[in-house]
Amino acid sequence: MSLVKEVGQAMNGLEQLRALMAKGRRPGIGDSLDFDLLEIDEGRAVFAGIPGDHAYNPIGTVHGGYPATLLDSACGCAVHSRLEAHQSYTTLELKIAYHKAMRRDTGQVRAEGVVISMGRRVAFAEAKLVDSEGRLYASATSTLLVMER
Questions:
Q1: Where are the domains positioned within the chain?
Q2: What is the pTM of this model?
Q3: What are 86-110's pLDDT values in tens digits?
Q4: Which fold is adopted by the domain 3-148?
Q5: DSSP string, 54-107
Q6: How far apart (Å, rounded) are the C-alpha atoms in residues 113 and 48?
């Protein structure tokens, strides 16, 4: 069963995400890559995780998919928080810029996503991934398709 179905399809997106947080639930990708949704407000989402060996690539740094996943989650959930109960979304495009390599000693990183604009069918969001000192590791822009459930 999807997490949205678990908390209730009659809720709007912000209510759904708040209910998931209240239950301490996270989607499978959060379990796989060990990151959590920390904050959710209308048009804004913050995820955090600690990159470790589970996210390493063969050259000895965190694989680019790790920051990409946190940034995609932040952009997507920022849009999710603006949805009506009868709506859903999917990412159409995600553009990422990597500013600094991450390693296991980077510590916790936070991806903060915000909605830039939201129409009936398309939404635009952006996100930044920073460490506890505010150093920028990656940034992203996203185009998302909004659709009826």
A1: 3-148
A2: 0.93
A3: 999 999 999 999 999 999 899 999 9
A4: Thiol Ester Dehydrase; Chain A (3.10.129)
A5: GGB-TTSSB-THHHHHHHHHHHHHHHHTT--TTEEEEEEEEEEEE-S---GGG-
A6: 12
